[in-house]
Amino acid sequence: MAHSAQRAGTLCGPLERGGEGPVRTAAQQLECQAGDLERIGPQLAEVTKSAYIWKDQDFRMWLAGGIGFIAGAFLLALLPRVLPFSADSRVAALIMGRDRINAAYAMIDSVDPIGVKKLQWGAGFYEAVAARQ
């Protein structure tokens, strides 16, 4: 930018010293500055265009992340229902961070705490009988 100001001074300087009237000199200086502005204009347009591109790209990235998050939550809720055999209980145990038996106890406990106590008592009774034989 400083280079263009020096260049404008060298181009417009001799015209000013030519002895012409102040109005004509001012008009010529204005023309020189307008020429500089025309040269700088496309550069400024490129800078602002790249800023708009970054802004648009940020929006697209946030949009893709949001859609991915929603799709992941939807699949997490829907996927165990369509998985074959016992994969649904394995997925539930994996999500809960427990083994399959304790994950099942936790899910049943959220609905019927007394039922879980009965199941645990029955499991303890079964293990005791199996140990005697």
From TrEMBL:
Source taxon at top rank: Bacteria
Record-annotated membrane-spanning stretches: 59-79
UniProt keyword terms in alphabetical order: Membrane, Transmembrane, Transmembrane helix
InterPro entries, alphabetized: DUF6118
Keyword Membrane: yes
Pfam family, one: DUF6118
Annotated protein name in UniProt: Uncharacterized protein
Organism: Rhizobium vallis
